[in-house]
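Incident log, structure service

09:12 report received: a user says their structure output differs between two submissions of the same chain.
09:20 pulled the input from the user's history:
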Amino acid sequence: MKKIEKAGVFGGLFDPPHIGHLILAQSVLEEFRLGKIIFVPAGNPPHKHKFSPYDTRYKMTELAIMGNQKFSISDIEKEIPGKTYTVEVLKNFKQQIKGIIYLIIGCDQWEEINTWKTPEELFKYCKIIVMPRARHSIRKTERFSNKVLISHAPLIDISSTNIRKNVKHNYSIQYLVPNEVYKYIKRKNLY
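09:34 re-ran on a clean worker, output below:
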């Protein structure tokens, strides 16, 4: 009997991708026995307004996941015109992946789930794994709380926002991002 594929979809701006993203992805992969994690750099997200060009974020994410056979990257959001909504992305993935899709989000995103486009529709296409984030709690009072899986991934308090600030103030980010991402940021003089 063929084993059912279990794929995690981990979206985000990844501006830049940092070691916290990688630690959490690996942790969720193992905790939920997923076959792979697909990193999905955001195209034109409705909740964010200022971010680096797509190709820059895609390249950094590609560099960040190099060497992990269980990690891959998708440019699915680059192909979607206009705002990129998670439900549309999952609809597309459902046609490509023959198996179970797990959407991986932080509890900060979970707190905003009611502001997402047709959040109830997400469950048609995937199971949702909610990861802990510093200064946020996973509330079980949300209307979909009985449908989500709670991850026990470690609490990693690193943010892309703070990394960009560090670069702007000429502080080191050397151990906050993978080495190849660090070199890319320096070479391209980002942030």
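09:41 both user submissions now match this output. Likely a transient worker issue. Closing.
09:42 reviewer note: Helices lie at 19-31, 54-65, 86-96, 107-111, 122-125, 160-168, 179-188. The chain has one domain: 5-158.
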